[in-house]
Every structure is written in structure tokens, then in C-alpha cells.
């Protein structure tokens, strides 16, 4: 049930978003060591974003997971997702923030219940 939400000011028209979603899902599952069947990736494009006073390509992400996060894992996730955004959307690694939330199972709904 890790969920990665990414917002970017890059226009996604003509972009192979399936490749981004697939690669991000695979990396999140592998790094957090959770089944990929529980991983959700949300990608929103054309979001107005100013970073450092400019509207050059940038992105912001939030990753929520019930367990599996720590400083080493977060560092690996940040690197992996930044690499994907840089290679697929030309968002420089220096223009991407990723915030991590380690949620309690009782604060995460799924399948009509909580974890």
C-alpha cells in the first residue's frame, strides 16, 4: 500500500506515462520491499509549479507507506524517483522534492477497511 503522488509542471501530452508509472511502481516495491500489487502511483502533469522563482521543469512528490520507510530507504527512493523524472520528463534532480510519510495502518484505508 505504498502510494506515490507526483505533481509536475511538465505537460504530459505525448509522454509515455505508462513507462513512468511502471518503472516507479517497480522501484517503490523493490526498495520498500512490499509487493508491487499493493503499490499505487499517481502522476499529475501541467500543474502550475514555481521552484526557485522559475517555472522551469520541476516536480513535487509525496510517498505514504505503512512501514518500510527509514533514512536509508528514503534516500534510495529519492534517488530512484529523481532519476526516473530526469530521464523521462527532463526534470533535473535538483528541481524535485519528495516528502515521506510513514503512516499507521489504522490511518490507511483499503478494501473497505484499514490495515
TrEMBL record:
Signal peptide: none annotated. It comes from the Eukaryota. GO terms for cellular component: extracellular space. GO terms for molecular function: phenylpyruvate tautomerase activity. InterPro entries: Macrophage_inhib_fac, Tautomerase/MIF_sf. Belongs to the MIF family. This is Macrophage migration inhibitory factor family protein. It comes from Populus trichocarpa (Western balsam poplar).
Amino acid at each position: 500500500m505504498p502510494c506515490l503522488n507526483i505533481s509536475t509542471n511538465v505537460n504530459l501530452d505525448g509522454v509515455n506515462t505508462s513507462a513512468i508509472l511502471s518503472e516507479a511502481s517497480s522501484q517503490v516495491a523493490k526498495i520498500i520491499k512490499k509487493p508491487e500489487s499493493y503499490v499505487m502511483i499517481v502522476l499529475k502533469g501541467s500543474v502550475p509549479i514555481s521552484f526557485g522563482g522559475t517555472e522551469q521543469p520541476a516536480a513535487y512528490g509525496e510517498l505514504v507507506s505503512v512501514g518500510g520507510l527509514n533514512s536509508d530507504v528514503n534516500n534510495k527512493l529519492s534517488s530512484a524517483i529523481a532519476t526516473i523524472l530526469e530521464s523521462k520528463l527532463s526534470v533535473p534532480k535538483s528541481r524535485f522534492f519528495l516528502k515521506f510519510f510513514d503512516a499507521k495502518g489504522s490511518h490507511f484505508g483499503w478494501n473497505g477497511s484499514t490495515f
